[in-house]
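Summary for the funding panel

The consortium committed to producing paired sequence-structure records for every protein in the target list. Below we show the first two records in order, beginning with the earlier of the two.
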Amino acid sequence: MKKINLFLAYFAVMVMVLTGCSKDDPGTSNVPDSAETATLQLGPLLNDAETRAFLKQEEQDIPDCTGETPGFAQLSIIYGPDDTVKEDIIVAIKEDDQGLFTAYSEDLELPIPAGETTISVTLTEFVVWTNVGGNPGDVIWVAPIEGSDYADFVDQPVGANFTFDLRAGSKNYVNVDVICYDNRDVNLYGYQFFTITPIPLIEFCIFGNYCTPEGRHFVASYSVNVYESNDGVKGELIHALLNNVIGEGSDAYSDPLCFFVPDLPNVNDNDEEYYVEITLLSDTPGYNGPDIEIANGPISVAEIKLFFGDNGTLDYYHFQYGCEDGVPPPFGEPGTKRYKACIKYLDSDDNIAGFAYLSLDGTTLTASTSLVGLEQGEIHPQHIHENASCGDYGPVAIPLDFADGTFPSADIVVGPSVFLNYSEVIPGVTLSNLQDRTVVIHGKVVDDEYVVGEPVACGELEEY
């Protein structure tokens, strides 16, 4: 057996896989004490017919309008001392003989700092929705963000420069230029996506290398497509991204490619997933072939959070195409059979969680596990078991051990968390139907004594 490098670093955020993330309530903030306020109201202004006709004549690809009636506005503002307060607000839209405007809302009553007569406000996002039964329905108009593809379609895009002063005791109407939305990629407007309730975003980063047949390493140039996903099946495209190297040959360099995806507050992190495709590009230094898709597969929010570290740090997913370490889980090379188990405690008094990944190429099995919550410093035997259910996992089929026959120990400590990481290539495996097997972790304290053979956690394998 040949040892391969561990595919995940050791992150305290793994605890979130156990208990779920605690999420701040949207729109909450600490505002300065003040007896005076200014009330902000916004009026969306759709490109008029003359402007739209000019843009069409100039062959600019401005989105088409649906003609639906606006019902709600979703907006984000920044204000307060040193721009420290951020509010995400949803408010109804009204109309009179002077046009459209946002309804009065206590959320738009902004406190004036003590000793001041005005407050500076920055509008960073503005999206208009229809009204369906008293609730927001579909996005119809959007104010482009500064620097986006559609920013030139309006006189004043929203963003860091859309700043204005509100005076104490006043009611201020501020006009916002909007254009129509027609289900194009939301990135063209400068938004990652549109959410009628502020949804937390999580970041995921990818970095890659290419190795020549002789083993020389180069920084890879690659593209990444990110899709919505359900049970491993890709849906609508969210991101289409490029990461090209800078410079040539061995002097070339590149930063990790990072992007954001939603972390829905009411969806289990293990159920919420995205599908990723990574393509090695032909301009990769040292590479003389065509563009080739080298990795794909789903990744859950729980797996993304494995890359979060202590104190806000973030590690990246690192592929090495053509190199010894190859394409690590959770993605795999196209066409390979891959299996995953979400590992969970057997006894609710324990706090153990993690993932096991398997891939089978002929009779060569690549196995990886990453677990948190085991006994620090203790050896934890782990096996593939014969049966498909953690309720009856049956006898051992294959040990997940090292080349010398030893099992891994939980000896990685990050803050209050204890981790076990394991990865190994195991030849000569003839076990079939891995999707009908389980992975069982052993070793727990029973009556104040550590029992190495006692089952402590289990996960049911499924192909993905």
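The next record, for a separate protein in the list, is shown here:
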Amino acid sequence: MMIENTIENSATTIQFYAGLKTIGGTIFEIKYKNERFIADFGMVFQNKEGVQVRPQTIISDLQTIGVIPMISGVLKTDVVDKNATIAISHLHLDHMGLLQYVHPDVPIIMSEESKTLYEHLHTIEEEPNVNVGQQVKGVPFHQPFKVSEHIKVEFFPVNHDVLGATAIKITTPDATIVYTGDIRLHETDVDTANLPNIAGSPDLLIIETTNVQEEFLDSNPVIQSEADQLMPALLEIESPIIFNIYHRNVKRLETLIEAARQKEKLIVFEPETAYLVQAFNLEAPHVRYLIDEQDASKNVVQIQRIQPITLDEVRDNFSSVWLQSSYHHIRTLLELPVKGATYVHSNGVPLGSFDPMYAELLEWIEKLGMKIVVLGVSGHAAAAQIKWMADAMQAKVTIPLHGFTPELLTGPYQTFLPEINKIYPISSLLKG
């Protein structure tokens, strides 16, 4: 259908800044008169290693090359718009990686669980430049929250591979919008499957389509949980394990710790990761953290409840150790007898072949005589599950985004594919 880019009778409009025909960087804005609600603030792509940034002009530089969209009133270089609020569906960089550039007077809301994780990520210096205590508010699930005079939101928990992921229902006087964020459905997952019952039949449904691609259309993988899929594969590995992980997936940490316990292995984390293990009460007698005896300044966090271990001790007991090795620490493996070990790539950085560092990681693994095993679970629902969700939500208009081929998804009634930076009155979408 054709939608004119004009403001009609509806006071509520929607505008997309990023997230269309891509799986990276999601930002859109709901506006009622002068009240602004911005959902997600994701990074379109990251600065490549070795490219120098210019601190005095970093925001304008990043806008010029398309990392930061041309969005007004919310960035540190802007005159702040006091009518704007930013909400974050979950703490993946493609949904919140630009928060470091937000003006300190612009309120940021996210689920309470997300805020807890966000605070810990700041402690280990993985997230910069936001005063979490003053600027960020944690919002409870299932409790309507008024962000401005006429706009209210409600957060609903959903299953994704990060703590605190939420779907968001946005209500204005003349429109109701539901944004799923990123979702997946497992057999034991009640929250996501129940979303149509508690937030369904909106005017607009904005739904992710990461796995809605031609090669996945006939696939409908249903698993009970991450642990059910990953645990058997981990327990089958007999060689010493070197692994990488993604800090924001706390459940993955829990699974690795339990698998190591069952294999009667010590599991050794880097200090930053060990801090998160302790923060979420996952420590256990067989958990250790690696200390740098030569440079104590590298131990940037305080860990009280997990025992330290030195690299020499790891070397002496290597056959009974599972060792974390993030890519930026991979040279440490030169000092260990890793030949014949298994490198378990478990959604850590570099995430995949789209990252130039991934090829370098594979070169390191080959040169060190290790074999690689990729053990991960997608954080995104299968195409058939996304289609089920879109149909079950019964929205008047379905807007698919956050995928390479969103046009492959159709809603139960009307489906609309927006364009970047156009302002759409919601009344015109509903008339279509």
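Regarding this second record: Confidence is low (pLDDT under 50) at residues 1-8. Residues 226-374 form a domain with the Rossmann fold fold (CATH 3.40.50.10710).
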